[in-house]
Specification:
Blueprint: H1 13-17, H2 25-53, H3 58-80, H4 88-98
Length: about 110
C-alpha cells in the first residue's frame, strides 16, 4: 500500500491576519474602552443629572427613552425581513428614501 500525501497547503490570508501576537496593547485597550463607555455614561451622567437639576423625574426620562428605543427596535427587526442588504442602517435608510413618499405616488 502506498500512502498518498496531499500537498501541504499554506495558510490563507485570513489565518495570517489573525495570527499570534497580531493585536497589540493599543488595539485591546480601544476594545475595552469601547465596551466600558456606556457604563461610564451611566455612572457619570445619572448622578450628575440628579445633583445639578434636583429633579426626581429623571428616571421617567430613562423610561421614555427605553420605550422609544423598544419601538424603534421592533420596527428595525420588522424591516430586516424585507431588506436583505448587509449595509447596516444605511441600507434601511436608502431603501426607505429610494421610493417617493406615499402621498406623491400615482394611484
Amino acid at each position: 500500500m502506498s500512502a498518498i500525501r496531499e500537498p501541504r497547503s499554506r495558510p490563507g490570508s485570513m489565518s495570517r491576519a489573525l495570527a499570534k501576537d497580531r493585536l497589540g496593547i493599543s488595539a485591546v485597550l480601544f476594545f475595552v474602552l469601547a465596551g466600558v463607555a456606556p457604563l461610564t455614561v451611566a455612572a457619570g451622567v445619572i448622578p450628575t443629572a440628579y445633583q445639578i437639576t434636583g429633579l426626581t423625574g429623571i428616571p421617567a426620562a430613562f423610561v421614555v427613552v427605553a420605550v422609544v428605543l423598544a419601538i424603534f427596535a421592533v420596527g428595525y427587526v420588522a424591516m430586516t425581513r424585507h431588506i436583505t442588504n448587509s449595509g447596516a442602517f444605511y441600507a434601511f435608510v436608502s431603501q426607505a428614501w429610494a421610493a417617493p413618499p406615499a402621498w406623491r405616488r400615482p394611484w
